[in-house]
């Protein structure tokens, strides 16, 4: 037995030292494990363990004791409220959590002991923070043995934390325990499916769903949302539609998830080439008064744009723009590509204006698509003009656009412009683009500037950028024209050494 005596001037450091070195005990370490008397009196003005408002037993007055006659042959529990208060107070303080867990384990040897939900919640929080995964498995066995589970939020968080830490075996054990309680089971299984979806482990999400069905657990709106997402991601559109109809038939309270469920449905149908079917469900959604979402508009616009349904895509785009629901740059890119395919090049510039009106940066992908589209449909001169126009309007090119416009300048013989843009590109940090280097080497070859070409290739290699087959073709062509056969042979051997496969 040990006791903490009354001392009005005891310091926090002394108390902490006692706690860390276990200079006091609540239980003996003998196999009979009787409770022993613990008497304490600490000046509350000088020392507090926690600020939760709960009384901690090591802060009570001297009259508070937890005791049992050490000679008793039969173990019994002290006053339950005092013991719960004692554990609660210790679990609130990071310095005494480990000791509290040891006391909890000792208490399990008492036949009458039964843990409270609040204590289990704090134990879970402690074990998760300290990443003691094996002890979590042990604690889950206590859930079954005592038939006591923490609250639903704690169980859900426990499952999510284990999945995030890749402790999948522990997750399986926890779900086996939680499936016995209807409300907690739904929250825990839903959390598991959400966690697996975040890790893109869609097959594991489906296994959890099947496990729910076999256990007779009724899915809520959140569960349907997660399982539909999993089947959508693996391309099982028919299963997504089937689950949607099942979800609709149950008439669940789906307010927080209705929009998300329709988004998954419409996106899945659109990606499988069933854009008009998705549009029909979108109409049903609006008739029910469910709020539209920018992601649903984006999904439908992309679906119709990919299918070449220009009129419907334009109507949806205009409607979404008026409602200020165009937020994804991918949607703008899809519409730009649709117009390029249709040959409506001027309309691609209207999309750039729409992006600016939506306070979105014109991405390098959009800019490059327009430049390449003009090159393909109108020729390199048109591409150069539209590029210079867009840059003057504040559009900022990236590596891909730079590479495309350098090629365009080289093709029309504006070599000084090409060199100027290439230098600008390097100054912005895009100095490892093989395509741009290839265009510049080919340009130097056409201009008969062999030394400049070789110097550029050497600079390219120094930056760790490996020459490709186009660059070797250009170098061998220019040296061949100069009848420098020794250099051609040298380049051929270097090409083979670097394992660059020759083209035809």
Task: Write structural notes for this entry.
There is one protein chain. This protein has 504 residues and is an all-alpha fold. It has helices at residues 12-20, 80-92, 97-107, 117-129, 133-146, 152-164, 168-178, 182-198, 202-214, 221-233, 237-250, 258-271, 275-287, 294-306, 310-322, 329-342, 345-357, 364-377, 380-392, 399-411, 415-427, 434-446, 450-462, 469-481, 485-497, and strands at 4-7, 38-42, 65-66.
Summarize this, please?
It comes from Melia azedarach (Chinaberry tree). This is Pentatricopeptide repeat-containing protein. The chain is mainly alpha-helical and 504 residues long.
* Unreliable runs: 1-75
Please provide the count of β strands.
Answer: 3
Shape estimate = elongated
Ends distance: 90 Å
What structural category characterises the helix and strand content? mainly alpha
Sheet with most strands: strand arrangement: 1-2-3
The DSSP helix count reads 25
Give Rg in angstroms: 35 Å
SSE series = EHEEHHHHHHHHHHHHHHHHHHHHHHHH
How helical, in percent, are the residues?
Answer: 55-70%
Q: Please, what is the average pLDDT?
A: 83
Strand content: under 5%
Describe the largest sheet. Answer: 3 strands, mixed
Protein name: Pentatricopeptide repeat-containing protein
